[in-house]
Amino acid sequence: MSRTHKIAIIPGDGIGRDVIPAAQQVLDRAAALCGFTLAYHPFDWSCETYHATGRMMPDDGITQLADHDAIFLGAVGYPGVPDHISLWGLLIPIRREFDQYVNLRPVRLLPGVPCPLANKKPGDIDFWVVRENVEGEYSQIGGRMFAGTNREFVEQTAIFTRFGTDRILRFAFDLATKLGRNHVTSATKSNGIFHSMPFWDERFAAIAATYPETRIDQYHIDILAARFVMSPERFDVVVGSNLFGDILSDLGPGVTGTIAVAPSANLNPERKFPSMFEPVHGSAPDIAGKGIANPVGAIWAGAMMLEHLGETEAAALVMHAIESALADPATPRTPDLGGVGTMSALNAAIVEQCGK
Amino acid sequence: MSRTHKIAIIPGDGIGRDVIPAAQQVLDRAAALCGFTLAYHPFDWSCETYHATGRMMPDDGITQLADHDAIFLGAVGYPGVPDHISLWGLLIPIRREFDQYVNLRPVRLLPGVPCPLANKKPGDIDFWVVRENVEGEYSQIGGRMFAGTNREFVEQTAIFTRFGTDRILRFAFDLATKLGRNHVTSATKSNGIFHSMPFWDERFAAIAATYPETRIDQYHIDILAARFVMSPERFDVVVGSNLFGDILSDLGPGVTGTIAVAPSANLNPERKFPSMFEPVHGSAPDIAGKGIANPVGAIWAGAMMLEHLGETEAAALVMHAIESALADPATPRTPDLGGVGTMSALNAAIVEQCGK
Ligand SMILES: CC(C)[C@H](C(=O)O)[C@@H](O)C(=O)O
Ligand SMILES: CC(C)[C@H](C(=O)O)[C@@H](O)C(=O)O
């Protein structure tokens, strides 16, 4: 009997519903070639669910997901449901309840993807953003006073624990070691953000001291963002707080051409809970259902999922398929890549390359 | 007798001490041509002052500055003095005590400045970042518990008032109107930051409703950063909180080639207190005193100061001088512009162009 991995599928909203089924075709092909099975369990949780039930997912949603080897998510959010409701009702609770404290995002210039920077070729830009994923600036602590009056104000409190800070920093250093690229860059803002960022710097220095063979540097987030554009070659592993990591891991893909090809892994490295894999792009309501979404972000996220499941060979097949399809000028391209092709046509080309 | 403007000069640290005297030469030339005088009053407040006195500026520093028409600042910060001390001891108190609640920063691709983006020419990128400058994420509210133990954590609280939010938004809409470019983009993150950003969006909608002729859009800061790289042409006026504005107003100059040419105006629009003008770049200790800093950021900041003082003609002379000097291939260029020239040589070329 062949190996089986139980995968919870949450297509979610908008183009999430387009790209997830497309990506499944590629993953299934790799699985077949490598002799294992992906057993999918779909969950139809979305803004539509919210409209019908007043909740993004059922009360026992987290429990329903718990018994899976991984979660494969499309995108969450749709016009008519305020973002802070849709996201804090589904995506963010999953990240937190399953202690997926690492958000790992590659920034890599792929062949055949037009790069907005001058004179860059595949290989020039290739690094990882490690984002803290469960605490920091994303917090429900705070509130509003004097609502509706001229004295109205809101407080928004960020929480940085030593426990949470140290473990994300350690993950970044371990990743750099594992990759054989002993260089970690910290995103900070200790000149402007008074309590949290000086603390972040302290912990960065303390953890760095336990990795003496690793080269370190740190930049304030403002200049770091500029350097992503001016000298993206210099980075290997960049570690940042929940917010800074969020910004950098969209900016990075922007610098390499299109958000639509970028993947994201929400990891519980201890494997106590399932990890979640999703494209970086959002639900893109304007093109949802039109059959022109770019499936690459979802497929690449799927490759990261296979890697996490221990299916290294299958993951490599999928990555190879993405790269050879994109490198081939004859491959149909979706509009975000400057083409006029459909999602299905691009996806078929990738399936076709899988195992070749 | 000719008009005189009283200018407080704070060169500060590092290359601040190089570029401020250089910029003064250009401003003086423009003033002479236009028949007014800039009366400079130097203040030697810096990290050296801190080493000597334990304070970045004297107790009555703010009072000493109050009686000036404008403040012209170089850069603050030097190795050996933690940033959050040097900045919160000088730059940030000046911004706050003088209620300089607008930080205004142009993002413009200048002739002769190499652009990291492919296929862009001067004119393609030309917009303004309006940053809230006295509240928001920059706050001393918060603290630390269980220091030195495994339970250690810090809290960092951001404060957004309706008063502070509304006035910066209004400034942005008024600027768009004044420029005849009726388009304002709001930087938000209401899908992740729970209290403050949904509030920011509410106020943006409320203020926008009072400017019905102005086109609006809003992006989450992560995707907005990516769009600065992928489609910088689309922006006219971008308004953001203290932190988001900080990031965007370094990223913007990064996209147009070099932070070193970008200026920044800290405005008290009501003119109850002096406004402050400074280059966007920092103190750059690695090149301080070597005579190779780029003076353009400081000079451009000086032009914004002249504009604020009502010396519109002189401001235009200075901007013209910067642009013609940079456009001339014979002009010596500092290393950040890809050249081997000195600051003095570049500065002399700009002085030379002033009034031509
Ligand atoms: C030095 C620092 C406190 C400052 C800021 O963050 O405001 C700087 O980055 C700026 O943009 O003027
Ligand atoms: C949708 C939003 C809450 C989310 C985030 O900010 O974490 C997204 O931008 C991401 O990066 O996954």
Automatic annotation (TrEMBL), chains A, B:
Coiled-coil positions: none
Known cofactor(s): Mn(2+); Mg(2+); K(+)
Recorded catalytic activity of this chain's protein: (2R,3R)-tartrate + H(+) = (R)-glycerate + CO2; (2R,3R)-tartrate + NAD(+) = 2-hydroxy-3-oxosuccinate + NADH + H(+); tartrate + NAD(+) = 2-hydroxy-3-oxosuccinate + NADH + H(+); (R)-malate + NAD(+) = pyruvate + CO2 + NADH
Taxonomic superkingdom: Bacteria
Record-annotated Isopropylmalate dehydrogenase-like domain positions: 6-350
Pathway(s): Carbohydrate acid metabolism; tartrate degradation; 2-hydroxy-3-oxosuccinate from L-tartrate: step 1/1; Carbohydrate acid metabolism; tartrate degradation; D-glycerate from L-tartrate: step 1/1; Carbohydrate acid metabolism; tartrate degradation; 2-hydroxy-3-oxosuccinate from meso-tartrate: step 1/1
Keywords per UniProt: Manganese, Metal-binding, NAD, Oxidoreductase
InterPro entries to which the protein is assigned, alphabetical: ICDH/IPMDH, IsoCit/isopropylmalate_DH_CS, IsoPropMal-DH-like_dom, TTC_DH
EC number: 1.1.1.83, 1.1.1.93, 4.1.1.73
General function of this protein: Has multiple catalytic activities. Apart from catalyzing the oxidation of (+)-tartrate to oxaloglycolate, also converts meso-tartrate to D-glycerate and catalyzes the oxidative decarboxylation of D-malate to pyruvate.
Protein name: D-malate dehydrogenase [decarboxylating]
Organism: Acidiphilium rubrum
